[in-house]
């Protein structure tokens, strides 16, 4: 009864004074303005940016987490894969042919001759776009009796690395893994000097092939039996598989870059071997 009486008294007081109850709690007091102060504009909620539309006017659906968005662009037409770099497609880089000292070249030639390699000097190559070799050679035989087919156009350091790798690694490994085939007779190369970008791409960095620093090996031929082709052999438990993995790994002792069929699809059928000089003697072998 006491609570009812208090409520009745409160209602009577409101009626007598003309006051009214707020709809939803007490209203905040207005902040007093200072002379010269302008009233701040009321804040408004930001308007979200419209979703981007595709060329046909429809919105792209949201991409689920951990998934790459679909590429809705039409593929561009590209020039022939192994043609020379198109103007304006090269990244900023040194596009001059690196000069080679006479002394360094002469030293390399003497070492190559000492291994019994067969080669000949050819005129300077300059194909533009930074493609070319200051002192190129045509390598006919990497070692006595081991032909390079077709003949490889290279800088002497690349030819020397190939000859040393063959003598000290490939031939001993083949003597164990393929002794029934006899001696290696041919290195079947897929690419030596050629003016192009890396992996035959449309844009990017110039290939070491375009500087005479690289050679691609597709297979090795023997006196008898089938050639040993370079192909994916990671799960190959035969001696042939062991041979390929062995010579791929040892290649990094002679070359600064070794890419084999396990590297990527672009090298699925050959070894890429080059003598690119990197800072600190860093080597990339995969």
From TrEMBL:
Residues 16-91 are annotated as: Disordered. Residues 68-81 have a biased composition (Basic and acidic residues). InterPro entries: Extensin-like_C. It comes from Rhizobium sullae. Residues 107-286 form the Extensin-like C-terminal domain. This is Extensin. It holds the Pfam family Extensin-like_C.
């Amino acid at each position: 009864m006491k609570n009812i009486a208090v409520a009745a008294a409160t209602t009577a007081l409101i009626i007598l004074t003309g006051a009214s109850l707020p709809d939803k709690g007490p209203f905040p007091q207005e902040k007093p303005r200072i002379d010269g102060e302008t009233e701040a504009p009321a804040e408004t909620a930001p308007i979200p940016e419209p979703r981007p539309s595709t060329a046909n006017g429809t919105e792209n659906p949201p991409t689920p987490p951990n998934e790459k968005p679909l590429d809705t662009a039409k593929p561009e037409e590209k020039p022939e894969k192994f043609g020379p770099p198109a103007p304006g497609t090269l990244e900023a880089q040194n596009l001059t042919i690196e000069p080679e000292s006479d002394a360094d070249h002469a030293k390399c030639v003497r070492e190559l001759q000492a291994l019994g390699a067969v080669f000949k000097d050819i005129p300077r190559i300059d194909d533009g776009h930074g493609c070319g070799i200051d002192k190129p050679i045509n390598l006919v035989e990497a070692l006595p009796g081991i032909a390079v087919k077709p003949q490889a156009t290279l800088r002497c350091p690349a030819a020397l690395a190939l000859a040393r790798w063959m003598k000290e690694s490939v031939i001993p490994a083949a003597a164990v893994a393929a002794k029934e085939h006899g001696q290696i007779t041919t290195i079947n190369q897929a690419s030596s000097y050629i003016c192009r970008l890396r992996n035959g791409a449309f844009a990017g960095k110039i290939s070491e092939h375009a500087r005479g620093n690289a050679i691609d090996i597709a297979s090795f031929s023997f006196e008898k039996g089938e050639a040993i082709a370079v192909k994916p052999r990671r799960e190959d438990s035969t001696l042939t598989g062991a041979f390929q993995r062995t010579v791929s790994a040892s290649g990094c002792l002679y070359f600064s870059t070794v890419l084999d069929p396990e590297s990527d699809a672009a090298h699925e059928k050959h070894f890429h071997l080059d003598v690119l000089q990197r800072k600190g003697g860093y080597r990339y072998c995969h």
